[in-house]
Design a protein that fits this description.
binds P-hydroxybenzoic acid; binds adenosine-5-diphosphoribose; eight-stranded mixed sheet
Length: 390
Amino acid sequence: MKTTVAIIGAGPSGLLLSQLLANAGIDSVIVERSSKDHVLSRIRAGVLEWGTVETLQDAGVAERCLAEGLPHDAFSIFFDGEPLRIDVAQYTGKQVMVYGQTEMTKDLIEKREAEGQTIFWSTPDAQLHDVNGDHPKVSFTNSDGKAVTLNADIIAGCDGFRGISRQAIPQQKLREFERVYPFGWLGVLVDKPPVHHELFYANHQEGFALASMRSATRSRYYVQCDSGDTVDDWTVEQFWSALATRLGPHWGPKVQTGDPIEMSIAPLRSYVAEPMRYGRLFLAGDSAHIVPPTGAKGLNLAVADVRRLAKAIESWKVLGKDEELENYSRDALDRVWKVERFSWYLSTMLHQFPEHSPFEKRMQEAEFKYVMSSEAAAKSIAENYVGLPF
Ligand code: APR
Ligand code: PHB
């Protein structure tokens, strides 16, 4: 079997890359470890930068997002109950779009299947070969149990943090950077109207909380929990009580509680692997980097990688120019590190760190008070939150 681009992973990165390549007349084959149902069952983030929405429009998959998504002008930060509204529309002229990653993945799968895209679902044994040579290939067993060898010009590693692509880069060639945070996020999805039509991020002495949503009738809430916690360590009542306390006396009592349709814990880490390229293998999305969810950047950073990689492959394949491919890792990492910085900055400002000294607690408080008092500081947060220019 032969294709121009073998894509490992049918998450947002792999699916969007396949769509952008197809729109440029470039064929690809996607190899996905999990079943389609499993991929579609994942509950993930929910805030799209406007640049992400524009990329979905360019890809021809933004119709439902524009029809059902919730455009937001602003979000608020609460520090020990003190509110600060960051009006991103006023500061940047741009909005963000609240639209679940699950919905975006559903839209991409529908479009790819409608266009006859080859996606090998449920293939957990994929292996990469000759990625640093001229004839890279992917071997795997398809769902019929048949051994398949997929020859490609390029392999795109869109297989997330625990995939195989980054592992295909020799350890001596790889530079890894990591910060593991001493807490996690316990998230709840509930079919109740959100406490407010905008997002609330709260740093309370008991811990961080986030009030978000998926629609006018479905809410997404998070509370900071200990890094060793499991869902079994929390009752639903304890979750609602912690959320109400951390949102403060005005908004806490207004939360409409109910039985969650989903409850899960996510660890928080910052991680970057350099380079994002090895021979004919190019990494995009979570396979190359992880950000804490505080800045809602994971999905948006993956989209930025894929947008850049698709343009570079098109330039190479259609125009015969490989300069963008040669510069892909350098240019993608330039944005990755700026987004890592913002996600780390917000996480550091908004969470309770067990190991913080009294001095560091004062630094956190001073940072918030500075942002409250400085339009320049608030504008800086706004321009990062809506998305740095591509
Ligand atoms: N072979 C084939 N597919 C694999 C393999 C493998 N060995 N390992 C992982 N995969 C698949 C996973 O099953 C998943 O569907 O690769 C896909 C990776 O998807 P994501 O982890 O969602 O990563 P990405 O597409 O880069 O999207 C990043 O998703 O996880 C969130 O927070 C993250 O919002 C960010 C976005
Ligand atoms: C979400 O709605 O899941 C969400 C929103 C904003 C974040 C993180 C997660 O920063």
